[in-house]
Amino acid sequence: MKISIGCDHGALALKNKVLAHLTAQGYEVKDFGTYTSASCDYPDFAAAAARAVASGECEKGIVLCTTGIGVSITANKIHGIRCALLSDLMSARLTRQHNDTNMMALGAGVVGENLALEIVDTWLGTEFSGEERHQRRNDKVMALEK
Asked: By CB distance 3.0 to 4.6 Å, which of 27, 33, 52, 69 could disulfide with 22?
């Protein structure tokens, strides 16, 4: 599976930990930056990571900033993206099972490294349930883009 990843300066350290963790597990990761701790604008990196998922270049995406809020809002502006801001394991599991999210967001100032890696593993390891009620609701959400 190919995963896009992007962050701003506030989440660079956590992005690098997540990227190393994913690579060690055998995932192919496309890093959209940022690559330095210099102040930057999160929409530039979150949108690039989201576009890679929306286009099919990557199957899933992970975006990070200090709170995770800005990058999740940005990713959700890209047509075809369903990005959830995650800070706990239950939400990571349920957003895949129920919402079939194709992106997730993390706040580096909200979750520590260990929890972040567990959230990533839970999210990536959980399949969409495929239940009719969840698919119907997801179709209604995605229809709002039209």
From this structure: 27
> In the sheet where 28-31 sits, what is the strand order?
28-31, 2-7, 60-65, 103-107, 83-85
Whether the model clears a pTM of 0.85, i.e. scores above it, the answer is yes
Is residue 65 annotated as a catalytic residue, yes or no? yes
**Vertex 52: Cα angle to 132 and 8 (nearest 5):** 110
The residue from 65, 79, 83, 134 that is catalytic is 65
Q: What DSSP string runs through 73-133?
A: HHHHTSTT--EEE--SHHHHHHHHHTT--SEEEEETTTS-HHHHHHHHHHHHH------HH
Residue pair 108/10 in contact (Cβ under 8 Å)? The answer is yes
As beta bridge partners, residue 62 has 5, 104
